[in-house]
Amino acid sequence: MKNSKQFIFLFLLFVGEMLIAQESVIINGKIIDEKQPLQGVHIQNLERNRFTITDTEGKFSIEAFLGNTLKITYVGKETIYRVITRFDLETDQPLLLKMKDELIKIEEVEVSKNPDINAQSLGILQHKPIERTYNEKRVYSETRILPSGLWSLLVGAVSVNFEGVINAITGKSKKIKQLVANDENMKVANYIIENMSTFLRKTVRLTDEEIEKLSYFVMERTQFHDVIKAKNHKMLEFMLADAWVELQQNAK
């Protein structure tokens, strides 16, 4: 009789365990970090494939069974895996979880003294590539009608750039090429302002405004382009002094 009672007790206890294990419960919880509640934390029940996120107070609710695993993720925080226990199912207290900052291990990096890595340094190109300005690229893409390569003409693989044809007819090609010329002229003017201002102030006695006026006066002249390209500052000094006299005479 005694053994029968013990068997019944164990059976009922086992059945109770099974019922609890098979009964889903809504788990209420709260996610915080070192300072405050976290909003937008992603909580996933891996077994039940349920999802939810925390509200402005860091609170959440999600369905779970005994033994289910919750995966808690948040940007910049370490991921938490939390297995639902019997205590979690029976308690009235919310599940409180604290997230820690994710530690990112930075490997030692050696900074090279020559960090310039390009197609030429890697051996992909045997020649130095041509660096074009924005308007120079426009000239190449918007005004060119036929391919410039001789090989394409020889093998007959000729493709016509219809945009170049239209721009040539409408006169847009001429305007684009003029933009490139203006870019080159401005380079000359800026070079004079940046590199010759000291000479023009001390020797020619010009103000900053007069230096700018002189720079714009000579920037379209090809001889100034050539001298600046050669970086012949001595010759440039004589040419600027003469150009200032000319500018003064024209102003009379």
From TrEMBL:
State the Pfam families in the record.
CarbopepD_reg_2 (PF13715)
InterPro entries from the entry?
Answer: CarboxyPept-like_regulatory (IPR008969)
> SUPFAM superfamilies, from UniProt?
Carboxypeptidase regulatory domain-like (SSF49464)
The protein's name is Cna protein B-type domain protein
| Organism of derivation | Capnocytophaga cynodegmi
